[in-house]
Write a structure and sequence with these properties.
- The chain is mostly beta strands.
- The protein has 3 helices and 54 strands.
- The radius of gyration is 33 Å and the shape is globular.
- It starts with a helix and ends with a strand.
- Mean pLDDT is 89; it is low at 1-76.
């Protein structure tokens, strides 16, 4: 081979080797340029397709409707994996939205107002949806930027169409599916509604009339559905509450009954034989099992995919400390922990997969008036609607706040203290509406339990005397907000809650002959034998002032509560036509006891001898009141109580220039143990209207402004000398006791 040929081949090989890196560089650069060009074109295309921003002249809801109607549905964001659940972990309850006043106001979450925030759901992008019943009848949103707005609704009615035109009637439970569709249990319309990501409202099933019928969705009927959930295959599960059934709407539009029968009750077994009693909420798990809150049975029920029903957890009716009482709302974590909001104690419960129950929040400091809806965020936080407090809360895991260190109620929990009163316009609950009736019981009085402690609880309302069988009427226009609005059929404790006014000791929905009053307002439920079993009053039912509610039972009075869910105010604040109280309270005596409960009686020159340090002493004031028109034997409780410590000549000691008013029943304490703070032993009413009723108040105990706490009369021991202890005892009209109000003391 010639040398020149070998050299040429070597040179060519070298040239190819040196050219390969340059070729790879140019190919990579070309690919990058192509990718960049594609990205730029995509961005330009996206900008061309993006809808124009709403102008300030367009209302916020209309702008939202336009955006949703014109925009393509965005794929749901990939949610973070929630942390594993921990039983009894520390938790903190925070306010998310609402100022505690009823109404409708969009804007910043802390200033937003709700009329009846009930259902709650959250999508993968963190948008929170809230169903707002009452006079609002809207679906509201809480956006990640902290702004609350109205998505749809606003007029009570039944209308499909674009967001701005649709109408709802008392929307309750909510659920979101993987495609971003929002499902609404439209309770007052007896229907299940759907809001698409494109901004259209449609009716999945139900025709606006109450009843029970399976079959094609457009022909199916429901009876006040409260809960809704979505299964993996797109099936929609419904808590058909006043039909006592669990229903399913298939993706093909067929409605069937999964479990439950024609009568309320409590029975496990195959779906058609099982019984529920007012199921209010439900969730579907990854095995297509349905977890159901069976509210009036105080139970959590489990329904298998084939309809077989079992009871997972149940409250003990005989245990006064039972936590699982009147459950309303339900959520379930990805690892099987249940979260339950209960009406009876205003608490949030956690139920572990093994059945253990733990109270996450509740008690005087974090008492929820009506925890109507629950939802878990993608991060595992628990969202809560407190419908009767007009607020939305969030429960976060981490540092909790020990309740014992600060028992006073929080300002951001419960309804606002100055919540507007119902417009009763002087009406009484008896006829004639604008004429005087005798008041025979007032808020804050000590009450006992039959066969139990004479100091069992504080009387929460106003008692108005009436004859057995006398008609009881509504004092104000009202819309039923509670799903469990009446209770205790046939017993002396039977009652009815209409918004913020409650009427107790009445035969609800019946006249004195037992006939049903108004079938549009009261639903008569028969048992399997055809006998009257109960009266039901559906959530969303409206009453006008003067409408008949029932008749007085053998208690011979109607009891009126102002407020709900443990937050009660004095009904005398409403004002009653013809009511007058010019009678001052009467003080029967002032007694002092030592730490062992022995009464101190040693006198020196007519003065009770006391030690300088009063911390271990108990001062008891025996006092009572009357209002104009009371029978002579009638005794009522005080409205407020306080004291002053004076020098012998009547000059107040430093710090006592004004009376220290430690007891005031304008707002009753949330704490059900407050009765033992307010009243001393040997207080109580054993039989209503008995000849002798004793109100023995503990002077100095703090029972006011919605909470109670023990307190000492003095900040420091007194120097030796003579003093006067002056008791300030007042009624609700401001009349003050003058006789026997001073106790002469000598301190040694």
């Amino acid at each position: 081979m010639p040398p020149s040929s070998a050299s040429s081949r070597a040179s060519s090989a070298s040239t190819r080797r040196s050219a390969r890196p340059r070729l790879r560089f140019f190919l990579a650069a070309g690919a990058a340029a192509l990718a960049l060009s594609i990205l730029v074109l995509a961005v330009l295309k996206l900008q061309r397709e993006r809808p124009p921003a709403a102008t300030p002249e367009i209302s916020e809801r209309a702008a939202d409707s336009a955006v949703l109607a014109n925009a393509r549905p965005l794929p749901p964001a990939i949610p973070p994996v929630p942390p594993p659940s921990e039983f009894a972990a520390p938790a903190r309850l925070d306010l998310l939205a609402g100022d505690g006043h009823a109404g409708h106001r969009d804007g910043a979450r802390a200033q937003a107002r709700f009329a009846d925030p009930y259902g709650i759901a959250v999508d993968a992008r963190g948008v929170i949806y809230i169903s707002d019943g009452g006079d609002s009848n809207r679906i509201r949103r809480l956006r990640p930027d902290g702004q609350v707005d109205s998505l749809s609704g606003g007029v009570e009615g039944f209308r499909d169409g674009p967001l701005a035109e649709a109408a709802f009637h008392t929307p309750s439970g909510l659920a979101v599916d993987a495609q971003g569709n929002l499902y609404v249990a439209d309770t007052g319309n007896h229907a299940i509604r759907k809001i698409s990501p494109q901004g259209q409202v449609s009716t999945m099933a139900g025709n606006g009339q109450p009843g029970f019928r399976d079959g094609p969705a457009e022909q199916a009927r429901f009876n006040g559905p409260l809960g809704v959930a979505v299964g993996r295959d797109g099936s929609v599960y419904v808590a058909d509450s006043y039909n006592d059934r669990i229903r399913v709407i298939s993706p093909a539009g067929q409605v069937r009954t999964l479990a439950g029968s024609a009568w309320p009750g409590e029975q496990d077994g195959p779906g058609a034989k099982a019984r529920f009693d007012t199921p209010t909420a439900l969730v579907v798990d990854e095995q297509d099992r349905v977890w159901v809150l069976d509210s009036r049975n105080d139970a959590v029920r489990l329904v298998q995919a084939d309809g077989m029903v079992s009871t997972f957890a149940r409250g003990d009716d005989e245990d006064e400390e039972e936590l699982l009482r009147r459950p309303l709302s339900l959520a379930r974590s990805q690892d099987g922990y249940l979260y339950v909001g209960v009406l009876r104690r205003g608490a949030l419960l956690q139920i572990a997969p093994d059945g253990r129950v733990h109270r996450l929040s509740g008690g005087p400091r974090a008492h929820l008036a009506r925890p109507a809806g629950l939802a878990l965020t993608p991060r595992g936080e628990l969202l809560i609607t407190d419908a009767a407090s007009f607020r939305v809360h969030r429960l976060s895991w981490g540092q909790g706040e020990p309740e014992a260190t600060n028992p006073a109620p929080r300002a951001d929990v419960g309804p606002a203290p100055d919540l507007a009163l119902p417009r009763t316009e002087g009406r009484w609950p008896l006829l004639p509406l604008q004429s005087w009736h005798e008041v025979v019981g007032t808020p804050g009085e000590v009450r006992g339990r039959r066969g139990g402690d004479a100091r069992d609880h504080l009387h929460e309302g106003l008692d108005v005397k009436g004859d057995v069988g006398e008609l009881v009427v509504a004092m104000a226009d009202a819309k039923v907000s509670s799903p469990l609005a009446n209770w205790a059929y046939g017993s002396n404790a039977e009652g009815l809650s209409l918004d913020r006014l409650t009427y107790i000791h009445i035969r609800v929905g019946r006249d004195k002959r037992g006939h049903l009053l108004n079938p549009r307002q009261f639903q008569l439920v028969m048992d399997a034998a055809g006998r009257p079993e109960r009266i039901r009053v559906r959530r969303g039912t409206r009453f006008a002032a003067g409408d008949a509610l029932g008749n007085i039972n053998p208690m011979a009075h109607v009891h009126i509560n102002l407020g709900t869910g443990g937050y009660h105010r004095n009904p005398l604040q409403l004002g009653f036509a013809g009511f007058s109280d010019q009678e001052p309270p009467l003080i029967e005596g002032i007694e002092v006891f030592d730490a062992a409960g022995r009464r101190l009686r040693q006198l020196e020159q007519g003065r009770l001898r006391l030690p300088a340090d009063w911390r271990d002493l108990q001062f008891v004031v025996d006092a009572w009141d009357q209002v104009d028109g009371n029978e002579e034997r009638r005794r009522l409780g005080l409205h407020s109580l306080g004291y002053q410590v004076l020098h012998e000549d009547g000059r107040p000691l430093a710090g006592f220039e004004q009376p220290r008013m430690t007891l005031d029943f304008s707002r009753l304490p949330v704490d059900d143990k407050a009765v033992k703070q307010a009243y001393a032993a040997r207080s109580g009413v054993t039989v209503h209207g008995s000849a002798v009723t004793r109100f023995r108040y503990q002077l100095g105990a703090q029972v006011r402004d919605g909470h109670s706490a023990p307190s000492a009369l003095l900040d420091a021991p007194l120097p030796a000398g003579d003093y006067l202890l002056r008791v300030i005892a007042r009624d609700q009209q401001g009349n003050e006791a003058l006789l026997r109000r001073d106790l002469a003391l000598r301190v040694r």
